[in-house]
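User: Fold this; tokens only.

Assistant: Input:
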Amino acid sequence: MKVLFEKKIDTGKIIVSPRPIWKCRTCINYNKKPSCPPYTPDWKETRDWIECFRRALLVKFQVEMENFDNEKRDVLEYLLTKEREFFKKGHEYAHALFPGDCNLCDECPHDSNGNCNRPDKKRPSISSVGIELSSLVEINFSESVLYGLILIE
């Protein structure tokens, strides 16, 4: 995993709509993972929530597809570490959003018993809350990249 860029953005540029959530409904993890719909806030709640922030940090990661699960796990841990750093600097409401479903655990217990082993680290995916990533970056599907977002202040 390699960080390609970290870019502070104005949250007013973030578009929130039901479109990403409808796309989530076609994913095999829909209704299975705690970071995915329907276990995440709906897009209207997200729109109201984002209005409480002025800035966010958009992070682009390059990942090796041959080792995707571990690379993505590193991405999630990186985002959680950055979130903690913002918190320690006085941004008490800093909140990370993951690229896709949470895969911090090798085996997700939520699949079998509805519980999460790491509720303190669980974060919703960017799409699951209705954020249109394409409103922030030009998506190039030939790249092996993931994007994370941290709402700061």
